[in-house]
Every structure is written in structure tokens, then in C-alpha cells.
Specification:
The complex is a heterotrimer.
Chain A lengths: L1 H28 L5 H5 L6 H10 L6 H14 L12 H36 L4 H15 L2 H15 L22 H8 L2 H38 L2 H8 L4 H38 L5 H10 L3 H29 L1 H5 L1
Chain B lengths: L1 E12 L2 E12 L3 E5 L6 H8 L7 E10 L2 E2 L5 H7 L4 E4 L3 H4 L6 H13 L3 H14 L5 H5 L8 H14 L4 E5 L7 H18 L2 E6 L2 H7 L2 E6 L2 E7 H6 L4 H8 L16 H17 L4
Helix pairs in contact in B: 4-5, 5-7, 7-8
Chain C lengths: L9 H23 L37 H37 L1 H14 L4 H12 L3 H28 L2 H8 L4 H38 L9 H9 L7 H28 L6
Helix pairs in contact in C: 1-2, 1-9, 2-3, 2-5, 2-7, 4-5, 5-7, 6-7, 7-8, 7-9, 8-9
The chains are: A mainly alpha, B alpha/beta, C mainly alpha.
């Protein structure tokens, strides 16, 4: 049952992806500035410009270009970056792990923190911790990751210089790693000193990304926990003599997670989107960061590559969340 | 032998008195019915015993003595130790009483392991035994199901099984059959009586249905406006009701063997008088 | 019951205060600012604000890397921010509400079409769209406004569509239809007034988002470079974070305050206009 559901969901994502690709294609082809003109040296003549244009296929009709474009995409050929003179696919794949690692660490941290805060706020209802957590939530939610990133840089990086404010690691340190997933790989290998070295670089960017998500999770989970606690099965557990803490975790929480995941799931996607700005502020070498240079140089192929990468990421994330919901809610599983 | 004694219990919600000095005695191996109209406060009595009162409710007087000790004065810890083991409850709506996202077997094993202090495996076996005892066919299959996959009647059987599992001294049943169909009601009531006979537990059976009381209960107390109006063994009460309200209640109960014209609603004048008495007592005691 | 005033609706008061402040700075910048915001004074670079040592009282909040007065730049920076946020939020609102109403009310293929487009837009990080648009169109304030609208309309559209879908089934609409009232009249007479509280909140939120978008695009350099913008101030200050952190901190604080204030304004307006909450 879930196999066919999965296939059906995957199939439904295709029209969206197609729409995305069409929009990217059209948008970048109507660019007023001429990237070719920016590339050629001043002494070049019109024939050189025309030749270069032909090389990038920019002299054919729109429809023709689109057909070529689609064909190339299918082959995995995303073109060559105009500014960096390398294969776009390779560039994107090379930087993708950094962004993925940052997003993953942020999401995991958000889930853990949100869960903890919601449980505390519910257990200590009516007392000052709940009040504090509510206040924190309002502020965390109101400000976007861009501002949080800057505030963190100022607070923890400059005024009280606790953490590094740029990059993924100290260039002076050797990295005996095979993949680009630095932190994950170092943990898997058990190289904890390396992981400890890498972690400070992730803390602030991850925190900047997480704060809005933590606020959302805490709020939704707290509300659904309260709903769950009002239910009869909690009463039943209480009259069976279970302690409040046990009831909260074993009885209320699994039920409360269901609506919470639904709402929070959407925000995972916002978090991934936030990497675009956060990577810029922290000079973090992920795909979000690569966008800026590409934008300034009007590097179409690279802009295209990064945009498509994000779109695919989002679509996959959506799918993952649907599946997660399926796993958590037994009622849906059986229908 | 008396299992539970309630003396002068008073409960208020805000400034509204809900219970105005309830006195009740329940003996071992006796099913004690508690009847009254909605709003009479009978559910509150049950909830007070098992410590499930709503947050807004305050106990402003009286005692609930179980096994010689006052439940109200007890610490939270001690009370929790009694719940489920010595005092159990059967709720009105069986479907919602079970956690919808955990399998029935797991939930039962949880509760049994906790109360009987045995391993999970032993608890699981006991759960299967209990299900068989309440006449559920294929207990093994049911244990693996989720609550929404079984019927209301079966849910109530599971609830009964859990309630009787530790052979408690007292069981509080709060309208256990109200949410079920009539045919299922009969079977569940019969099961309840059977289990009670086996464990010799005392049962406080809260209901508004006098017919059920006649079938299942040994003693009965009638409540109105937060007070016990009359208390007697069932046969005595039905044959010779001493309080005017009890008589009126009996007259208002439909009977198949008598024509509808014999049905008498409870006279407004009687109710008004009883309410006035209740308020007067409150004022005298300086409570309102 | 009072719906205005500090006690009854603190959010509205705070929000209105912030909005007013922004408006005043925008309209009266030349009167309020002590210096020309673009005026460079290379002898007075990186001066700290008056509360710190090494300051120059002529520059109340200090100067940036080119000796420009920060206080003046902050005041003048409100102009592009307010322009973008008012125009951007209004246009997003018009497009979003228009399409949301159509999609929610008429349903069918209109709804499918609009929903599909919204879904495609939401497959991108909003800032990504903004940056790509800016790259395509080129820097400038109009680019920023276009970016704000392109990102913002989808949010408004989704919410409005949802509301209209729900309202469509309510009795007051079905009875109007039964009485033969035209669709147009129903939309403008029945639905829109009920949407007003929601629109107030959305407007506030979108303005807050627009301020951030404007700041971000200015930060990257895709806004107008002839005028003082908060984003450009942040960007400029980044190279001097350790020596002159206030260059970045001040505009960040101002933007944060604006966002909080605008959100509060939206919340407060909803509280004030929602008849259900007015008890």
C-alpha cells in the first residue's frame, strides 16, 4: 500500500518540477544585460562575440534552446559556469554537502530544542518557565534568519568573541576526510577532536536558521500537548496511577506529535530556504553562498544550477515529510 | 465490611457548590448504585474518589475514607499508589479511554506491568488471559490491534479487564454502558456482575438509569442538588421509597408492563422545594 | 470596551508608534538629519557613537568607513524601506487577494491553475527568487519592489484562498446566491468586508517581510546605490566588524525594531477590527 502511495506522490511532483524548470529557463533568458558582452575582452570584435554566443547556444530560438536545455538536463549536463569556468553540475554537487550538513544539523537541533521546550512549558504550566518560553517564541518567530544571523554575529562573534564568524573550519587545520560532509563523517569515523573543532563553525549559522523553527515547533507542540492532555485516555492513565511526567511523555506526546509534524514540516522547507542568506552572512561555503557571485556576474548556467538544486531539494523534502506523517499516524496508515 | 466511607463531602467550583455534604458507605462485595439527574453531582463523587476532579474544583469539606485512611488528606504519591491497584475506574466512553496511537496489547502490558510489578512478557501473557476472561475471542489478535479497529463494546470489555486485573477492592464505574447500544449494554452489565462476583470487589455504579440499577446493584443511593436524599438496599428502595423525590423518580421511570399514561414527570414544586432546602442549608452553614 | 489605548491593545500602540516613526523619518528626513547621508568626511572615519570614547559630538551615532554620519544615514535609510514596504505590500496584497478570491470563490480550473502556480513559486526559497530576479533585471529600487511583490503575493493568495473557500460554504453566502445576487456583488459586499481583519494582519506581516527583503537586496548590492539604505550600511560595516561593530549593529537594530513593530501593527489591527474578539 505504501509502495504505490510513494510512487504516486513521486509522480505528482513531476509537473511541479517541470513548471519550475520552465520558469527558470524563461526568466533567465529574458535577461536585459548581456552576459557574453561582460565576458569578452574590450578589443574583441563582433565576430568573436557571435562565436562565443554560438558556443553557449544563445543564438538559437527560445524553443530550440529549451529543447536543447531539457536534453542536456536529462544527461546531467547543466552547462558550464561562465564566471568560474567549470562544469555547473560538478560545482553544485561539490558544495551541496556543506548546505545539507548545515540544514540537517539545524533541523535536528530545532526538533530537539522544540521538543524539550514544549515539554517543559507544558509540564510547568502557569509558572515562570512557560511565560519565558512563550516570550522567547514570539521574538524568535518575528525576526527572520537574516536578522538572527547578524545579531548572533554581533553578539557571540564580535562583542563577546566566543565563536568564529566565517567558514567551515580553520584553514590551518588538516582535514583527513573523504567526503564533503565534514562533521558527519568525522563523527562516523569517531574522530571526536576533529568534530569538536568543526562544531563551533556550525553553531551560529545553525542557530540562526533554527530559531524561527524552534519557535514554531514549541508553539504547535505545546498547543497539541495541551489538547492531548485533555483527552480521556490521559484521564484513564491518571486514574491508573501513572505519574504526570510519564503520562506526558508516553501518552500525550505520541498523539501530540501528529498535528505538530504537519505544521512544522512546512517550516523545515523554510529553514532550507533560509540557508541562502545565512550562508552569505557567515561566508559558509554552501550552494546558497555560490548564488551571489553567480548573480553579480549574471552567470546564467550557475544560477540555473543552484536554483534547480534548491527546487529539487524542496520537492524531496516535501515528500519526506509526507512519508514521515504516514509513519507517525497509524490511523492514516490503515485507510 | 466497609470498603469506602464518604463523610460530608463538599465540593465547590468557583462560588458554586456542587456537592453539599455527601454521605455514602460502600461495603465489600456489594454493587452500590448512585443515581440522580444530570447535574446532581454524581459524577463528581466518582471523580473525587479517584482524584480526577477538574482543575477548577475544590474540596471544601468532608473526608473519603478508604481502608481507614482519608484519601483527601493523603499525599499525591500515596494516592497514586492506590489508583489502579486498590481503586480502579471504568469510564463512560471506552473508545476514547484508550490511547489511539498505541496498540491495545502494549497499553495493557504497560498498565499491568506497572501495577502487578511483573516483567513486560508476564504482563503480556496476563493481558491475554484477562481478555479471555472477559470473553473476547482471539485475544492474541486483539492485542495487536489499535483501539479504532475494535468496536465500542469490545473496548469496554478491555476496560473492564484492565479494571479488574489487579483485583481491586473498589471499582468506580461512571455510566459504563450509557454510550453503548442496548443489546451490548446487557452483555457488558452481565460481564461486570460476573467479574465482580469473582473478585468480590465493591463497585460504585454511577448512572441515571434506574433500570440498570435494578438489574445490577445491591444497594442504591439517590442524589439531588449535591446531596444524598435516600440510601437503601435496592429491593427496599424500589418497593418502599421513603423520600418524596425517590418516589417521584421511580414514578418517572418508563416501564414496559405499564401503559404510558402511568408516567409521571417529577413535580416542579417538589424540585423547587428541595433546591430551596439545599440553598437554605448552605446559607445556614455560612457557605454561600 | 476600549479597543484602542495602551492597556487594551499594547501591540497596536507599539506598532502604530513604529509605523509613525518610520513615516516621519521618510517624510522629514532633510529636516531631521544633521548631515547629508552621502557626505564623505575622510578625516572622521569610523567614529564611534557619543556614548563611547573617541567620538565626535557632531556625529551623534558615529560614522562609517567613509566618514558618513550614521544617524543621518539611518534616517534617510527609512525612505527606500518605507517606499518598498508600502508599495510592495500593497501590490502583493492586490495580486494576492485578487487571485485568492478568484481561486477560492470560483474553484474549478481557476483554482487548480492558481494553486499550481502558487505551489511552483513556493518550491523556491523566497530569497532565491529575489536574488535571481535582481540578477536578471538589474539593480534598482524598482527591482526590489518587483521582487517583494513576486515573493509576497503567494503568501497572501494562499491565506485568502483558504478563507474564501471556508466562507463560500457559510449560510450568508449561499443565501445571497439563492436570492440571485451576482457573484461580483457577493465578493465585494459580503466576502471582502469579512476579510478585512485578516487583510490587516497580512498587510502588517508583508510590510515587515518587505523591509527585510529590501535590506537583504541592498546588502547584496542590488538596490539603488545612489541613496543610503540600511542594507548597504550593514554590508559596508561587515569589513570593519571588529573595529567598528556599531556600523552594522545600528541598522540591524533599526530593521529589527521595524519588523517587530510592523508585525505588532498587523496583530493589533486584527485585534481591533475583529468583531469576534471585541467582547
Amino acid at each position: 500500500m505504501s509502495g504505490s502511495y510513494l510512487a504516486k506522490r513521486l509522480l505528482l511532483t513531476l509537473p511541479t518540477l517541470f513548471g519550475v524548470i520552465v520558469i527558470i529557463f524563461v526568466l533567465l533568458r529574458v535577461v536585459p544585460g548581456d552576459p557574453i558582452a561582460m565576458m569578452v575582452p574590450p578589443e574583441a570584435g563582433p565576430e568573436d562575440v557571435a562565436r562565443l554566443r554560438a558556443v553557449y547556444g544563445l543564438d538559437k530560438s527560445m524553443v530550440q534552446q529549451f529543447a536543447i536545455f531539457l536534453g542536456a538536463l536529462a544527461r546531467g549536463d547543466f552547462g558550464t559556469s561562465i564566471s568560474l569556468k567549470q562544469d555547473v553540475f560538478g560545482l553544485v554537487v561539490g558544495r551541496l554537502p556543506a548546505t545539507l550538513e548545515l540544514a540537517l544539523v539545524s533541523i535536528v537541533f530545532s526538533l530537539a530544542a522544540g521538543l524539550a521546550l514544549a515539554l517543559i512549558a507544558t509540564h510547568l504550566r502557569g509558572r515562570w518557565p512557560e511565560w519565558l518560553i512563550d516570550g522567547f517564541n514570539s521574538v524568535a518567530l518575528a525576526l527572520p534568519e537574516f536578522l538572527w544571523a547578524l545579531l548572533l554575529v554581533l553578539a557571540l562573534g564580535v562583542l563577546v568573541p566566543l565563536l568564529p564568524i566565517s567558514g567551515r573550519f580553520d584553514p590551518a587545520v588538516e582535514l583527513p576526510l573523504a567526503t564533503q560532509f565534514y562533521l558527519i563523517e568525522s563523527l562516523v569515523r569517531g574522530d571526536f577532536s576533529l568534530a569538536a573543532h568543526l562544531l563551533p563553525y556550525l553553531i551560529m549559522p545553525a542557530l540562526a536558521l533554527s530559531l524561527p523553527l524552534i519557535a514554531v515547533i514549541t508553539r504547535v507542540l505545546k498547543s497539541s500537548l495541551q489538547d492531548a492532555l485533555a483527552q480521556d485516555y490521559v484521564l484513564f492513565a491518571r486514574i491508573n496511577g501513572f505519574s504526570a511526567a510519564r503520562i506526558l511523555v508516553r501518552y500525550a506526546l505520541p498523539n501530540a506529535l501528529i498535528p505538530a509534524i504537519t505544521v512544522a514540516g512546512v517550516h523545515f522547507i523554510f529553514l532550507v530556504g533560509g540557508t541562502v542568506l545565512v550562508e552569505l552572512i557567515f561566508s559558509y561555503p554552501g550552494i546558497g553562498n555560490m548564488l551571489y557571485g553567480a548573480a553579480v556576474y549574471r552567470d546564467l548556467p550557475l544560477i540555473q544550477g543552484v536554483t534547480i538544486a534548491f527546487a529539487v531539494l524542496f520537492v524531496l523534502l516535501n515528500l519526506l515529510i509526507d512519508l514521515l506523517y504516514l509513519v507517525i499516524n497509524p490511523r492514516v496508515r490503515h485507510s | 465490611m466497609t470498603v469506602l466511607t464518604i463523610e460530608g463531602l463538599r465540593i465547590m467550583i468557583g462560588s458554586v457548590p456542587i456537592l453539599r455534604g455527601v454521605d455514602l458507605k460502600i461495603d465489600r462485595n456489594r454493587v452500590h448504585g448512585l443515581v440522580g439527574e444530570s447535574g446532581a453531582g454524581k459524577t463528581m463523587v466518582g471523580k473525587a474518589i479517584i482524584n480526577a476532579l477538574p482543575d477548577a474544583a475544590r474540596i471544601t469539606g468532608g473526608a473519603i475514607r478508604f481502608d481507614g485512611r482519608d484519601l483527601i488528606a493523603m499525599s499525591v504519591r500515596e494516592r497514586r499508589r492506590l489508583l489502579g491497584r486498590s481503586i480502579a475506574m471504568i469510564l463512560q466512553n471506552p473508545m476514547t479511554a484508550l490511547n489511539p496511537v498505541i496498540r491495545i496489547g502494549e497499553q495493557m502490558a504497560d498498565i499491568l506491568a506497572y501495577h502487578l510489578e511483573v516483567s513486560r512478557r508476564a504482563a503480556a501473557e496476563r493481558a491475554a488471559e484477562m481478555l479471555a476472561a472477559v470473553h473476547i475471542r482471539e485475544p492474541g489478535r486483539v492485542l495487536r490491534l489499535y483501539p479504532h479497529e475494535i468496536s465500542g463494546g469490545m473496548c469496554q470489555r478491555v476496560a473492564i479487564a484492565l479494571a479488574f486485573a489487579c483485583e481491586p477492592q473498589l471499582i468506580v464505574a461512571d455510566e459504563p454502558t450509557t454510550a453503548l447500544d442496548v443489546t451490548v449494554q446487557y452483555r457488558v452489565l452481565r460481564l461486570l456482575k460476573e467479574m465482580q462476583g469473582r473478585t468480590q470487589s465493591a463497585v460504585l455504579f454511577v448512572t441515571h438509569d434506574l433500570g440498570v440499577v435494578a438489574k445490577v446493584c445491591d444497594d442504591v443511593s439517590v442524589m439531588f442538588a449535591g446531596r444524598i436524599v435516600e440510601s437503601a438496599p435496592v429491593a427496599d428502595l424500589f418497593a418502599y421509597p421513603r423520600h418524596a423525590y425517590t418516589a417521584a423518580l421511580l414514578a418517572a421511570t418508563p416501564r414496559y408492563d405499564l401503559p404510558a399514561s402511568t408516567l409521571r414527570p417529577i413535580p416542579e414544586a417538589l424540585r423547587a422545594r428541595l433546591w430551596q432546602e439545599a440553598f437554605a442549608d448552605d446559607r445556614i452553614a455560612g457557605r454561600v | 470596551m476600549r479597543v484602542w489605548g495602551w492597556r487594551a491593545n499594547p501591540r497596536l500602540v507599539f506598532g502604530a508608534f513604529v509605523a509613525l516613526l518610520l513615516l516621519v523619518c521618510t517624510l522629514f528626513a532633510p529636516l531631521l538629519a544633521p548631515h547629508d547621508p552621502m557626505d564623505q568626511d575622510l578625516l572622521n572615519q569610523l567614529r564611534p557613537p557619543v556614548v563611547m570614547t573617541g567620538n565626535d559630538p557632531a556625529f551623534a551615532l558615529g560614522t562609517d568607513e567613509l566618514g558618513r554620519d550614521l544617524f543621518s544615514r539611518l534616517i534617510y535609510g527609512a525612505q527606500p524601506a518605507v517606499l518598498v514596504m508600502v508599495v510592495g505590500a500593497t501590490l502583493s496584497g492586490i495580486v494576492g487577494v485578487g487571485l485568492g478570491l478568484l481561486a477560492g470563490y470560483f474553484g474549478g480550473w481557476i483554482d487548480t491553475g492558481v494553486s499550481r502556480v502558487v505551489e511552483i513559486f513556493m518550491s523556491f526559497p523566497p530569497m532565491l527568487i529575489a536574488i535571481v530576479l535582481a540578477a536578471v533585471i538589474g539593480p534598482g529600487l524598482d527591482t526590489v519592489i518587483i521582487a517583494v511583490v513576486v515573493i509576497g503575493w503567494t503568501r497572501v493568495c494562499r491565506v485568502i484562498r483558504g478563507e474564501v473557500l471556508a466562507m463560500r460554504e457559510l449560510d450568508f453566502v449561499t443565501s445571497a446566491r439563492a436570492a440571485g445576487v451576482s457573484h461580483l456583488r457577493i465578493i465585494f459586499h459580503e466576502l471582502v468586508p469579512n476579510l478585512a481583519p485578516l487583510l490587516a494582519v497580512l498587510f502588517g506581516l508583508e510590510m515587515g517581510r518587505a523591509v527585510v527583503t529590501e535590506a537583504v537586496l541592498a546588502f547584496i548590492g542590488f538596490s539603488s546605490s545612489d541613496i543610503a539604505t540600511w542594507g548597504a550600511m550593514i554590508a559596508g560595516g561587515r569589513s570593519y566588524l571588529y573595529q567598528a561593530w556599531w556600523i552594522t549593529a545600528l541598522p540591524v537594530a533599526v530593521i529589527a525594531l521595524s519588523v517587530l513593530g510592523l508585525n505588532a501593527l498587523g496583530d493589533g489591527l486584527r485585534q481591533a477590527t475583529d468583531p469576534l474578539l471585541r467582547r
